[in-house]
Structure formats: C-alpha cells, structure tokens
Predict the 3D structure of the following.
Amino acid sequence: MRLKSKLFLAGGLLITQAAMAHGPRPPSMIGAPIPPVPGLTDGADPIVVNKAAAIALGKALFWDTNVGSDGVACGTCHYHAGADDRFKNQLNPGLKSNQASGQTYQTTASGVLGGPNYTLTKSDFPFHQVTYPFEIPGDENPVLFSSDDVVASAGSFSGKFNKAERSGANNDDCTRRSSLEAEQDAEDKIFQVNNIGTRRIEPRNTPTVINAVFNHRLFWDGRANNIFNGSSPWGERDKRAETGVWVKLNARTVKKEKLHLINSALASQAVAPPVNEVEMSCNKRSFPAIARKLLMRKPLESQKVHYQDSVLGALSRSTANNLQPGLNTTYNALIQKAFNQKYWSYSRLGEFGTPAGQTPYTQTEANFAMFFGLAIQLYESTLISDQAPIDTSPRDAEGYPTALNASEKRGLLRFIDAHCNICHAGPALTGASIVTNSMMLKANPDAFGPKADTAGAFISDNLVIYDVTSNGNQFMDYGYINTGVANPESDPGVAGADDFGNPLSFSEQYRQYLAGNVSAVIDPNVNKTRSCDFGKPLAENPAINDGNIKFTVADGILADPNGNQNCVNKAGYAFIPTPAAAQLELTNPLTAKMAIATKAAFKVPTLRNIELTGPYMHNGSMSTLEQVIEFYARLGNIPNPDQHGVFTQTLISINPQARADLLAFLKTLTDDRVRYEKAPFDHPELVIPDGHQGDQQLVTPGSPLGSNLAKEEFFTIPAVGKNGSTDALLPFDSQLAP
Amino acid sequence: MKSKYNLLPVLAMACLSPLSVQAAGSFNSFANINFTINNLNDLTGLDISENFALDDTQTVNALSGDASSSYLFTPAVSANNFQVSGNADHGSAVVSYLAAHSIAFTNNTVNSYQISLTMAYQLSASAVGDNAESQILLDFYNALNTDTGQNQTYATSVAPQGTENVSGTHTFSFTLSPGQAETISADANITGNIAPVPLPGAVWLFSSAVLSGIGYSKRRKNA
C-alpha cells in the first residue's frame, strides 16, 4: 500500500505507548465549573429572582411548538442527544458558499439528484470521497466525489408574518409562499418541489445543546456573543437604540438599557432562531409579537408532559395513568415568578410601540426577548452530561482513566498521539470552552493530567492564539479551527461578518489592536490577549534569537503591556510589534507576520455523546465516526492555507486496530442518561416535521398551513420523565437505508 | 373599539381540532386604596386635597364579538374602590384602566409640620372560564420617588396561581417646612384579557392527538 505523509511517527509508538503520549487528557466533567454570570441570579438586584421558576420557564419554552410560526420548537432541531438525527428533507444546497454551486443541489454520492425532501441513505456519505481514504490529499489520491451540499435541519415554511393570536392554533397568521415566481424570495425558489413550498433547511449542521454552557461563544462561527445585551445575539457590537431591555425606574418612568451579562452566549444564541425566517419564524416577526402569542397560554398546551418530568412534573396536569398536555399555569405567571419585577411591572402603555391594528405592547411583551433568552440559558445550563464512563472512572497518577477496557485505553492514547487532544481539550473536549478550561487549570494545574506533561494554552484566558498552521504561524480565534473539511470558499466560518459589517473574528480585532486601530476592537478582553501565552512567538525577544519568522527588533517591537507573569509558554514570548510595525505589515499584501487563519475555521465541537450526535462537521458531511477518523487519518480533505498544523499522520492511518481503539474511546464519552433520556435530559412530548409526503421529485400540495405548501409527514417523540425511556437513542447512521 | 370576526360554526372547529378553544371567560378585579392621615388633628392650617381619577391616556378597551367590559369608580372618604370587569362568550377583550389616587399637602403657613400618612390597599383579581386573565399593578410613591413601593396580583382561568389577592400598608412620614409641598400617589392599573375566537381555518397541527386522528403521524422506531 502506498503511503505519503508529512510527519510520520513510526515504530516507537508501538513500544511504551504510555511514555510517548503527551498533552492534556480529557478530564472528568464532574464538578467542571460553569462560567459565572454575575448579576443573573446573585447580587443586590438580580435579574432572575427565582431560579427554579426560570428553569421551568426555559424548559417549557425550549420544547413548546407554539414558539415557532409553524410548529417549530427549539427541540425540533435539538431533540436527539441535543442535536438532530432526521434524514428526510435535511439537505441545503450549500447557501453559505460564495460559489455558484452553493445555490443549487448536486447529485448525491449514491447517484441521485439531491434536493428538498430527499431521503438520505448510507451511500450518500461522506460528501467528500478519495481513492485512498487513509492517504493525504493530492494529485496521487484522486477525488472520487465531492459535494458542497450540506446536511442540516428543516425549519420553517416561513412567509410574511401578519399576526399571532393570544390563543387558539399553534401556527401564526402568515401570508405564505406565492406560486408566482415574481413574488417569491430566494429561499422560496430553492426550497420547493415542482413549485410547491417545502420547509426551509438551515445552512449548517445542528450542534448539540448538551454541554453548550461551557462554550465561550456559540454557533459554528461564534456569532452568538459571550455577552448578552438583552435582546440580540451580538453583545456589545449591537449599538442600536432599540437593543436592550426596558427597566422600570419608577411608577412613571421606564428606560431602555443594554445588559452586559458575561458568559451568556446561551442567551445570545437563544434569541436568534425564533425570529429567523429559515429556522422558526415567518418573516419580520418580533419577540414582542411572540410574547403576545404566548403570554396567556398554558405552556406546552398541546403537548403531553410527563408527571415525573424532572422540572415540569409538578406543574403538569398529568398523573401516572393519564398524561395530559399543558402546565397548570401561564407563561405570564411564570415570567412574573421568575424575573425581577422591574422588568414587567411597569403599568403604563405607549412607550413600547403598538403593532398595527392592535393594542399597545406592554413592558412584559417588550422585554420578552430577555425573558426568553435567559430562561433558555438557565435551562440549558442544567444540560450537563457528566456521568459518562470517562467521568465516573477513577484516574491514575498520570491522569488516565483506569476503569476503561483495554481497547478504550489504547484509544485514548491514539487520541493523544494523533493530537486530537490539542483542539478537543478540557471536560467538554473543546478548546472553545475557554473560561471553563482556564478556571479548571487555575484551580488545579494538574486537572488535565500532570502539569509537566500537559502544558498548553488552556490555562490562558486568551481569546486569540498565534500558532502553527500549514502556512506558517498565524493568528487564530481560540477554539476555532480549520481542519480542511471542505473547500474554504464553501463557508467562511469565523471569517464571516456580523449584521453590522464587523468581522466576527477576535483575531482580526487583535490585529487591529496591535496596529493601534483601537476603534476596531469591539469585543471586550480581546485587548487583554497575552502574547506570552501564544503557541509560537509573535515578536523576537531581543535576548533570544531562534530564527522563526516573526517581528524583529529591526521591525519595531515592544514589551507586551499585558504582561509576562505566569506565562503558558515563555516569558520570553511577551513581546509584540509596535503599532507602526503592525500597521505596516497589515497593509502589506504579502503579509506573513500578521496572517490570520480564520477562513473556514469553525468552533471545535464537543465530543461528548458524539456517538449519538451525527452527522458530523459543520456541513454534516460525514455520517459515521469511522468516516470522521478516516478524515483525520488522511489529514483532512482540502489542504488550504488556513488549515491548522497540528495534524500528524499516526498509527490510525495504517492500523485498523488503532482506529477501532480510537472509536471505542470516543464511545466512552456517552452519558447513558443522554442515551436513555433520563433527567436532566427528559422532555415533553414533541411532534416533529419529518419531510413531506412524496420525495424529492413529487410532493402533494395542500398543507393545512397553505395551499401552495407541501403536505407533511411527522413523527412524535413521547413525553419522558426523570427515569427516562426504555428505548436507547441510536447513532444517526443506524437508521439510514443502505 | 369593537370589531367583527367571521365565526366558523363551533361544531366544525371541533371536528378539526379536539383542542378547540372557546372564548367564554370573564374577569372581575378590584383595588381598594385608602389613605389615613394619622395625625390629622395636628395638621390644622395645612392645605390637604385628595384626588382619585381615571388616567384616560392609559385606557385600552378593545372588544370583539359579544365581549363587554365595565369599570366602576367609587371614590369615597374612607374606601376608594376601583373595579374593572369583563366577559365574553364568543369574543375577545383586551382591557386596561389606570386609576391615579393622590393626596397633596401644601404648607402655606409659617410653621413646620410632621406628617404621618398610612396607605392601606387591597387588591383582588379573578378570572374564570376558558381563557381569561386579569392583573392588578399597584405603585405608590412620593413626589421625588424617594419613598416608593409596589405590589401586584395575577389571576388566570387556567388554574389558581396563589397571587390573586394581596393587601398591605405603607406609612409615609415626612416633614413640610413653610412653603413646601408633597404629593403621595398610588396608581392602580387593572387589566383583563379574554382570549380571542380562533381564526377560521386555525390548525392544531402540532398536537399528537390531532395527528393520530387524521392519520398523519408515524412513529419513528428507535430499535
């Protein structure tokens, strides 16, 4: 068998494997610190005055099909180990791409033209296939198949939002898709079969919500900001006057203020889908309009709630032999119980706007985005899966779990010598858990294994790192990595921009900070980045000359004002370019010293419960963990200048037993409570859209939601209480036809 | 602000949706607010005037179908009562009234006065039927908002919430020098909502009860 490789560790790996392994071990998640949110439930005047009520509110809102315009709940895409395992009508043509091919569907790997309402099969995966799966990409390894289509989640039919009623049906009053092309928008034209509208599909694979609380930012591109401003996903970037919450100052005065809640990416994320016209909503629906629909209703009014639901059971109307839909309260009551009265008790009207033809909005309605975001955040903060075998096992002095079987133990060593552990580090197995990883290591430097053997940047609070890529040393957003999954043009990832035109990337802001362009730094703490925590030196230490390309004394350097104490690497790295040197390099088209590797870089996903959360990668292009391991064994699909340089070809490239061991290790990350939907992963009943009657060539018009919309198919997941289900959740691939 | 809806026969709705919503409901809520000047005999010479009036700028009375609402305003020397009620069998109501109660003290004398004023309140909200709710929001405050308080009730016809009735007192103590004035206020806002008739063609699409009846639902096998 021919084999080409960049760096190949041979021979020695088969001897004294434990001695060769280095770098962080995935620690137990038990006791892993949740990044604190000062002011949310603590302090002199907390936003949430009853945390249990807020969690109940959040769980109800998460699973309630009334939140969407046409029956989509958060749980509709996050029901299977926190993710989505549907396989009919789940294809997006690749709409994040800047290439024409992203606008149209391609033929699938099984030879059938893909499109809306297509049913995925095993032979459709992976979406990028090469002749020799374990050899590196290149001319001598011809590509057999490659598609920029994306496997994601079906959302809303969308349409123009008119009104939502305070009671009655699940669906909003929307003017649905016209059959006349001149009246259709871009998505109407794509998500249709024979001009009958189908549910729209997201452009990226749905990540799991379980353990999402540990991530510093959320979404694949990090656009759900760490800081929650009260009404939008953008944190401090959102300077609009309408952003924020209305605070009652006295009986006659109410004032709009922006929140500055840190470590609240869950809330920032939660307020995006309910008003997004692909995911959950008709077009131009606002949170106050959603509030008007929900406030008088019983939560989950058409969904059975288990009498032993770990959060909602006491509020349900169910008994052991008689499961009933709905809770015995209203959303209005839950909000008032959970939240500080200064956000809902202002009695005067007129300040909050009035929707056409209706009565004025109240303060409660006007603040509903905040109630929604923070309640969901508090609920999702309980979704922590810390009872997997990797968690409950004792650890030896080297930090390795001892209760795993022989194959699983070998698999962990493969995980480490293939350098998976460098990006998938910490209890959530992602470097994107910046604050949690840092807090754990500051409390206990041996938390990821003996400190001497596991030195890494995870103890740092840095949001940016300067480290090795396939194209030399570059800045990267910490926890956001390009692994070469797909053509970089098919999705910019963290190199994208926010709604205001600002780059999402922290690295881009840091470059501007170095160059003295202070106004370009819009996220807090980017300017506290410490160069001495970088993986590679950015600027030459006058006392050291190790010959790497970086800013030299001659270029202009200065001591990093962010300090040189307790550095991850060396105090000698604590130098940065002068603003003039940085600015010069920024405007140099051949820039090498200020290069950033953010294009097609995506948030490193957690590996927790990975067995259950396929398909994999930001584009859902791999259906099995075997395919994922093959991908890494050959060092990725598409070599490109932003690809991280941590990969080396190791035993998993040539040894099937090594791959099987690695797979066995990955399965030790599954918490059986997730597998069996036991508390806190229990949930109400949920009816989930599952494609449309027919297939990708023929659908039936006449959905009750609109005459020009396709009739649907559904499946129902039953209400589950704290003791879970007797049926195990299964991996994505297990349900696919060949 | 009445508007007419086209009403589908209720029976047809019932065929489509076992969860059909009628809008029969009513609410009936009141706020009693009383001010007692504790040391009235010591305050001869002060100008004191009491006022209890509806703030028309805050009135909402949106009714449809056969809904009706009313408010009752009974200012009296020792028992100021403000009551709002509404009901509908086939209609909807969004009702909100705000009553502003105040006592103003003006010292046009050459003496200083120490004043003790106790406000006692009783709030009671009630909502019955299929889909009704009512809320009372009370704010009490002095002119500069340095001595303030609030309370509220909430009732829903869904189930008792335990917050339907509240009562309390608050004593304002202050001194007025010659030429000074102070106004103590209590604003009571009573709202009542009765949910509307479902839209024609409204769809209970995401109820498993409905879907199994129409035959849409298929159960996903996990094994």
Observations:
- The longest strand of chain A covers residues 686-692.
- Residues 1-20 of chain A have pLDDT under 50 and may be disordered.
- The two ends of chain A are 28 Å apart (CA to CA).
- Residues 126 and 398 of chain A are 37 Å apart (CA to CA).
